[in-house]
Amino acid sequence: MGEHVKPFTPEKAKEIIMSLQQPAIFCNMVFDWPARHWNAKYLSEVLHGKRIRFRMGMKSISTGRTIVPQFETTCSYVEATLEEFLTWNCDQSSISGPFRDYDHSKFWAYADYKYFVSLFEDKTDIFQDVKWSDFGFPGRNGQESTLWIGSLGAHTPCHLDSYGCNLVFQVQGRKRWHLFPPEDTPFLYPTRIPYEESSVFSKINVVNPDLKRFPKFQKAQRHMVTLSPGQVLFVPRHWWHYVESIDPVTVSINSWIELEEDHLARVEEAITRMLVCALKTAENPQNTRAWLNPTEVEETSHEVNCCYLNAAVSAFFDRCRTSKVVEIQAVRTDGDHMKKEFNVCDHVEVGQTGSQNLTTGIGKPEATSHFGPDLVPVAQRSEEPPSQRGGMFESDGKDFDDKDGEHFGKLHCAKRQQIMSNSENAVEEEIVSNTTTVPSQTFISTDDLLDCLVNPQVTRIVAQLLIQRRSL
């Protein structure tokens, strides 16, 4: 009887999700979900004849034989049915069909970012097969979910999501996750080219980093885990992640959970969008596909982006309209910080120069106390990524001494605090170190300028200043 009881109530699961700042795996929470049986074969029958877009990439990049990330702007795309995908994936000698130009031994295929509302637009009953309500979000189901189907080697380049936190349900096959905490952002060399709203990419191929070009990456704290069917991974806000399929076929379902901090993040994203589109369009008006991610289909005119920015700022104030005070952190010209209060918002605090995660360490003690067989923390890895035959967890049982997880929490909190203090001056340190060496090139490109202008730390300050200006 006990095996059919879930280890956490919806209320407790949500409490953990909202307080924990460390990636962790929920086990034994989805055994009764109908979506548990959504393998690629089953989905091919449900979506019979429906053509979807697959992103095609080179396996040489996935296996670490190149040091350049494979961004979506450099990939090819194929429109095909799931039946055709499975035929290509199984019958490697097939030379017919939409995948005929892609040698299976050299390419992977990925149907990524497939929103349920578009994929199953005429089969909405299927939304109920996904029950995020079990994690404390009543009414949340497939309608707020995204589907991912890939072959061996399929991956997403290393990035962080600007909005929300993430719950990922692994349905078929295994995926290996490489994760880095928010305070590692300076060591991951963030870039907004290619541009995609809500995604900050890293310039680094984290499975085969170019340490000569990106030496600060050696300071990054890699966390790794292999996610297996039936498990749900929780990815906290602003954790960087690179995800790769390590089985012949993988199927995942995820949902991004909205957070209070998203209201300010949308202002930051609107600033980024406006600057990137203005400078890149001016540089080459005829070639937006070279820098605009294929997922971005909206108009990029300056007028539209200006409206987008104003709407984001207005939405922020609408959210705060009934409140009393919000603290906005201003930046003086001498680099010191001051706090300014104005009677607009209540309960919403914004203005940290770093991610919200930086102020809370690994999470509240009551969250880490639940670590155990049903909530497994994703631990830091000091060594290089293992081979693809790795076990279920790279961190299985090595990081907690007792049942209440006290040792784990204290150890990582202490380490996190030390790293936080070290990372506060990471940008300044990099500037100093760069000026003491002879530059490899003197030409500054538009992308170089944008890497500075829309650095997450910079756009956060600009967003705060805009909100202050609007509130006066």
Automatic annotation (TrEMBL):
Compartments annotated for it: namely: Cytoplasm
Q: Where is this region: Disordered?
A: 380-399
**What residue stretches are annotated with the JmjC domain?**
108-272
PANTHER family listed in its UniProt record: HSPB1-ASSOCIATED PROTEIN 1, HYPOXIA-INDUCIBLE FACTOR 1 ALPHA INHIBITOR-RELATED
Functional summary from the UniProt entry? May play a role in cellular stress response.
Q: How does it assemble?
A: Interacts with CRYAB and HSPB1.
What's the protein called, per UniProt? HSPB1-associated protein 1
Q: Which UniProt key words apply to this protein?
A: Cytoplasm
Q: Which Gene3D superfamilies does the UniProt entry name for this protein?
A: Cupin
- Gene name of the encoded protein: HSPBAP1
- What is the species listed in this Swiss-Prot or TrEMBL entry? Sapajus apella
Name a single GO cellular component: cytoplasm
